[in-house]
Amino acid sequence: MRLLVVISGDYGQRHADNLRAHAPGDWRIEVWKAPRLLPPIVDDAEEFLPPTLPASDLILSLGEHPGVATLLPDIAKLTGAQAVIAPIDNAAWLPNGLARQVEGWLKRMGVVSVFPKPFCTLTETTYNVIRQKKTYDIPLVAEFARYFGRPGFQIDVDPSTRQIASVAVTRDACCGCARFVAEKLVGLSADEAEFESGMLHHHYPCQATMGVDSDYNDTLLHVSGNVMKDEVAGQVKPFRQIEYFVPVGRVDAPVKEESNP
Question: Could you tell me the pTM of the whole model?
Fold first, then answer.
């Protein structure tokens, strides 16, 4: 697969570096850095784009400015790309209204697109979570999501100690967070793994915002963290020790009923 990663700052660079380090060997990954100074809506794309860009099958847009998204149709024309992934980890960089516009522009060109919010909800068939979940059928995006998107693990737990013996990453977050969490989980007990995975996620430089998102009524950082915790919790559930809490004053012994005289 020929992949063009469009970046404009450190957020996108981190993703591009992780892709280059861990993507399948037959992927060809090119990076184009957009100008830092862009208007919110770009009227003349030629003013900001190079004369040529590498031929690509898929565009991954990781711009940190709404102007980058408005360049995507012209980037698709230059590269011949058939599909676009434009994650929304910060609504200031890609507001919902602009995402719908860009989707429409691309569709008229015959280019399909997805806008996972946040990025780490992307799977081979869906993106987003809860009531915002959407399905798609785009082979190029699905091929990307086999390796990067919603974190996936194969966690092995020692049944005698209930400690995590090993963690294999079956799908990394594009930023590399899943690999970071996997390394830190080894040696923890099954009981603490879910909580610790959430804490580890927050310690990683996640770019999902802390502002409350109107679609989720929660922060995208929390949505992303819950995705990580849910994956770990499902893996270790068979080994967790269930704790029962007895309310103060509860009496388990049956009460003998007194008969009426």
Answer: 0.89
